Amino acid sequence: MLYNENKFALSNPVALMLDKDKNDFTRDDLIRLFQENQLERITFHYTGIDGKIKELKIPIANKKQAETILSEGERVDGSSLFKGIVDTGKSDLYVVPVYKTAFLNPFEDGSLDFICRFIDADGNLASFTPDSILQRAHKLLFDKTGFELYALGELEFYIIYDTIYKTYPLPKQRGYHASSPFVKNQDILNEMIRYITQLCGNVKYAHNEVGCIEKLESHLEEIKGKSAEQVEIEFLPTNIEETAEYLVLSKWIIRNVAYKHNSIATFVPKLENGHAGNGMHIHMQLMKDGKNIMTNKKGNLSEEAKMLIGGLCQFAPSLTAFGNTCSASYLRLVPHQEAPTKVCWSESNRSAMIRVPLGWTKANNLAMIINPQQKTKLKQDTSRQTVELRTPDGSALIHLLLSGIVLAVDSGLTNSKESLETAKICHVSVNIHDSDYGQNLSELPTSCAESSEKLLQHRSLYERDHIFSSTIISYITNLLQNENDRNLNKRLMALPDDEKLKESRRIMHRDIHKH
Q1: pLDDT, mean of each 10-residue run, the chain (515 residues)
Q2: Domain that holds residue 121
């Protein structure tokens, strides 16, 4: 017995029921599971060009139908899923299930669900889809350098709810790691992390974040007058291709749990002036032969880690085209808001664009310090050190962002002399918002318009080796330019206070469900 002897409450239910590792699931296993549990349908999930998860429900009446669906997948209209990318004259695509992603839908009884990949008419992975772009980028990195890239995301979002209790109010901007009864949505958060852990298996932790809004002002009746609490779910590192799928699926779970409780979950980059915005920070680890090589034997950053950082610094201005895709993104990327505005990196410095967080490198087995009765050390197989890119937010097109990050890392490793010099120049040791040092650093874009220009200037970095197509780059630049937000913050600052507040809320709230 593989799984049932080590059963935990949040273990993957499908793996437990089949008593197999998810990577070993076969078609026959899944059909047996379907029959023994009298399930009614198979549901396929896949990500469109808008970055949101889609679904196709397939009722199953007999074994032959189940075998066919699990063997061949189904047809979908690519011109609708990838509007502006795929011509309607050649729009059919196949969606084919990835067996290891099988899960029991927590919101609908009787459904066995899968994440799918897109296959074209010739039986190849569809070249233009975001998941295929990421797969090609990651393969390029491995083929050229021998490294895999692991990543984790931090999903920050607001839970918007009807205020029932006026007791134990939470002071403004004092929500970080707050506990009940001061925060009111712990049951919702617990349900979210339960489902995400069972389906994805890689939740690191969850907690309330800084933001807490007693009463929202908005032109949208859906949120007007309601309260909002900011929370964060952080994940454990996985292969970056899995990271993308887990983040998209997790956003789907988060929204559905909120909806179930008559609440709203929004990943909008900024919800209210003077309150914390929603980032989606990405942590990275370079892996070789299953080992994290981000540190050297002394516990300091390795040369390869500094090359990674240098590559990210070189790509950073154009990466915002994938990681900060709406005007509200640039109401978050302003000084003194724990959000980056300059291209730089530092150790444990939250004003920097890239942060090197504590990683248990120079001190570990910490519980033995305060629990002297514990005599046996826990042996860790590999380092836990990461570096954190703090620019992206909830508007990110996740697969494309991670594809760009992989290419930045590849560039850093293969152009080592240049990337190490960049890392040296971009290193800071002070709060850049409270010193003159920041004046010497390159600026990040301040609008979608500027991000689109950076992407066009650097498009060769993304189109090399046919990773991103010219069509995709042109699509993203048009998407950004349509925001029509050049000099956004300057335009807002020129308005009278009341008009500035009203206009900034309109910009923020129009994207409440967009991403």
Answers
A1: 67 93 96 95 96 97 97 96 82 95 96 97 95 98 98 98 87 93 95 96 95 95 96 97 97 98 97 95 96 92 97 98 97 84 87 91 91 93 92 97 98 97 92 68 95 97 96 96 94 94 95 89
A2: 4-126
Residue 487 tokens read as: 């000099």
Within-domain flag for 159? yes
Residue 376, in any domain of the structure: no
User: Helices (H) and strands (E) in the chain — how many of each?
Assistant: 17, 16
User: Cα–Cα distance between 38 and 367 in angstroms, integer?
Assistant: 47
In a domain, 366, yes or no: no
Number of domains the chain contains:
2
Check: CB of residue 461 under 8 Å from CB of residue 322.
no
Residues 304 and 391 in one domain: yes
* CA pair distance 450, 488, nearest whole angstrom: 11
| Neighbouring-strand partners of residue 212 | 229
**Looking at the structure, do residues 74 and 167 belong to the same domain, yes or no?**
no
CB 196 within 8 A of CB 103: no
Alpha-carbon torsion (412, 432, 233, 512), positive or negative: negative
**Helix orientation angle between 398-414 and 303-323, rounded to the nearest 10 degrees:** 150
Distance CA 195, CA 9 (A): 11
Distance CA 208, CA 323 (A): 23
Placement of tokens 């059919």 in the chain: 92
Of the three residues 97, 126, 155, the one that is the final residue of a domain is 126
CA 7, chain centre distance (Å): 28
Pairing type for strands 238-239 and 345-347 reads unpaired
